[in-house]
């Protein structure tokens, strides 16, 4: 019998491949990808055709530490991260994106990032 973590990682990899098989970013409509760890969230706007990251920001970066208040929990921080990424993307002329949730379920911090990006003016 395989180790529980090996099975869990194998299933996460299958979900990631399934999602990425349906989602691709172009120069006109790049991919907004969310990577969630135990404590932080990393968001990138990626052009898959040219293989370049257009905008990238993490919840533990210096730009976000200035924007976060003392009592903000991880979900509020994720929503503010989505707003900040939308602001940076719109400054570069990006209006529409394709949302890539990786292997994460669309709720909690992943959903908060998406909601913040929509409030910031990005269209999915």
Strand content: 15-25%
Q: Identify low-pLDDT runs.
A: none
Largest sheet: 4 strands, mixed
Helix-and-strand structural type: alpha+beta
Calculate the mean pLDDT score and round it.
92
Find the CATH topology: Nucleotidyltransferase, domain 5
How many E strands?
Answer: 4
Named CATH architecture = 2-Layer Sandwich
**Molecular shape:** globular
Q: How are helices and strands ordered from N to C? A: HEEEHHEH
CATH secondary-structure class: Alpha Beta
Strand order of the largest sheet: 3-2-1-4
Instruction: Report helical residue fraction.
Output: 40-55%
Task: Kindly give the count of domains.
Answer: 1
- What's the number of helices? 4
Rounded to an integer in angstroms, the radius of gyration calculated over CA atoms is: 15 Å
**End-to-end span in angstroms?**
42 Å
Structure description:
The chain is α+β, with helices and mostly antiparallel strands. It has one domain (4-119): Nucleotidyltransferase, domain 5, CATH 3.30.420. It is built from four helices and four strands. The protein has a four-stranded mixed β-sheet with strand order 3-2-1-4, with helices on one face. A hairpin with a 4-residue loop joins β1 (31-36) and β2. α3 (74-91) runs parallel beside α4 (109-119). The mean pLDDT is 92.
């Amino acid at each position: 019998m395989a180790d529980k973590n090996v099975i869990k990682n194998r299933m996460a990899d299958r979900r990631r491949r399934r999602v990425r098989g349906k989602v691709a970013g172009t120069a006109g409509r790049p991919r907004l990808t969310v990577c969630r760890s135990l404590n932080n969230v990393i968001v990138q706007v990626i052009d898959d055709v040219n293989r370049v990251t257009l905008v990238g920001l993490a919840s533990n970066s210096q730009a976000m530490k200035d924007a976060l208040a003392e009592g903000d929990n991880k979900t509020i921080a994720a929503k503010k991260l989505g707003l900040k990424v939308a602001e940076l993307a719109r400054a570069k002329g990006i209006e529409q994106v394709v949302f890539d949730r990786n292997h994460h379920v669309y709720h909690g911090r992943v959903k908060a990032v998406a909601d913040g990006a929509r409030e910031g003016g990005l269209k999915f």
